[in-house]
Amino acid sequence: MQNIIKILLLICITTIVLNAQELKKSKYDINQCIKIEYTKEDIKKYKKLIQEGELQGYSCAGIYYMRQGDFKEAINYFNKGKEKGSIEAYAQLGSLYSSFLHDYKKAVKNYKIAANAKHGKSAHNLGVYYYKNFKYDEAYKWFMKSYETGDLNSLLSIGLMYIDQKKYDEVINTFKKVGELGEPRGYYELGTFYQLNKDMQDKEKGIKYYKKCYEMGYGKCASAIGEYYEEDKNDYKKAEEWYLRGSNLNYSGSMQKLGLLYADILKDYNKSIYWYKKGFNELNCIDCALSLGIIYKNNIKDYNKSIYWYKKGIELGDARAIQNLGFLYETKLNNKDKAIYWYKKALSTEVKSMAKRRLKKLGVSYE
């Protein structure tokens, strides 16, 4: 009897070891398969990867179908990848259940398998899930697993979690550690902490850390210093100087801030337009396109150019531009048909409530 038990235990141990060994990573970069838009040629390529024995092909095909909204086929490919031992397939299936199907139980199950096999992003996603559900100890555990794979985003998340818990010493130490590890966002978050946290507010300390991360080449910190001079000190010359430093580091937010400063405060619309266009043309700044539409409508009174820039924003997926374009046609150009056309376009976006109100005012059914 004892011999039988020993044999059964040996079989169980062997099975566990084999299962652990079955999980595999691929050197093929999965980011090659993550695109904004796909063509039929893409899915042919992913299926060819599978035929060639590339493990990531299953995840690539699954991502393709997931982004097309064909979740059944996506699950099919992810499951095939799991059968082959693909860690990425578990991770992507977790993402599908979490982001699209909102089945968090299945998401967590798949994320855990991938995370325990050292898939950093899955561990991070688990941390986010538990953080949002106020299970801080569990969130900390998974964020640390992700950090151990080299993901500094998870260390930043731990710092933000400490803010929620009012563990301010831990906040400071965590953000400092991120900065000391060479990630400027650690100093940015520490600067923001000192700027905005009412319990620990020390604006001079905040600026000190913003300057540290600016010196590391992080344009967002230059922009934050500019905001301090503009909003706290009303020193527009200093604000302009720091926004320019941020723009020199190709930070679109600084270009946007320059455009806003010139338009709203300094009333120099030519300079405002220059910076908004620069942000759009060089960095695809969506807010810059919207702002150009607004300036041409409200300040320059050039409605054709306003339409042009609103449409540029729409091409980049800005629902606010759809809303503003409809409003322009309704209130300035007295073109009811085009206003209705754009408001109906807005019904499938996050500004649908506004679109319904405008359509109702125009006496149009939107059902």
TrEMBL record:
Pfam families the record matches: ANAPC3, Sel1, TPR_8
GO molecular-function terms, A-Z: beta-lactamase activity
Alphabetical list of InterPro entries matching this protein: Sel1-like, Sel1_AlgK, TPR-like_helical_dom_sf, TPR_rpt
Record keywords: Antibiotic resistance, Disulfide bond, TPR repeat
Reactions mediated catalytically: a beta-lactam + H2O = a substituted beta-amino acid
The EC number(s) this enzyme carries: 3.5.2.6
Gene3D superfamilies registered for this protein in UniProt: Tetratricopeptide repeat domain
TPR repeat copies, ranges: 152-185
Gene Ontology BP annotations: response to antibiotic
Protein name: beta-lactamase
Organism in which the protein naturally occurs: Malaciobacter marinus
